[in-house]
Structure formats: C-alpha cells, structure tokens
Amino acid sequence: LYAGFWGPFDPDGRSEFHVNIRCLQVFGRHVRIHAGAGITAGSNADDEWEETTLKTRTWLALIERLPTAPVS
C-alpha cells in the first residue's frame, strides 16, 4: 500500500519528500496494519526493525482504546 508523500516543495531549490509508510486496512471488525522503514546507506537493520515495530504498536494502542460498537 502507498499512502502518499509529504514534505516541502521548492521549485527553485531543493525539495525533500517523505513517504508515509504507515497504512491501515479495515475489514469489518478486523484490521491489517502496514508499516515500513526508510532504508538508507547508513541504516542499521536491527534499528529499522525496532522502529517498524514501534510504529505498529502505536496503531495497536490506539485501536485498543476504541470503544466497541455493535455490528449491524
């Protein structure tokens, strides 16, 4: 899944864009969480994995706080 990009755009200079790598799909009463990492030349695989894990934990914490609603 691709959720778009954001960042400053400068037509006369340097633009920097960042890809939103957090997505959520809803399937009735179930969800699928997608999260990724920005791998660069200086990346550490273990650190990137931990960052991705933290991103999904944030989604889960928010979802767990939602009130339950009856399904019609």
Summarize the structure in words.
Helix content is 28%, strand content 22%. It is α+β, with helices and mostly antiparallel strands and 72 residues long. Strands 1-2 form a two-stranded antiparallel sheet. A two-stranded antiparallel ribbon has the order 3-4.
In brief:
By secondary structure, the protein is of the alpha+beta class. Helix content is 28%, strand content 22%.
Q: Catalogue the unreliable spans.
A: none
Percent helix range = 25-40%
The strand count comes to 4
What class, by secondary structure content? alpha+beta
Question: What spatial form do the alpha-carbon principal axes imply?
Answer: flat
* Number of distinct helices: 1
Strand adjacency order, main sheet: 1-2
Beta-strand share of residues: 15-25%
Order of helices and strands: EEEEH
End-to-end Cα distance: 28 Å
> What's the mean pLDDT score?
80
Radius of gyration: 16 Å
Give the biggest sheet. 2 strands, antiparallel
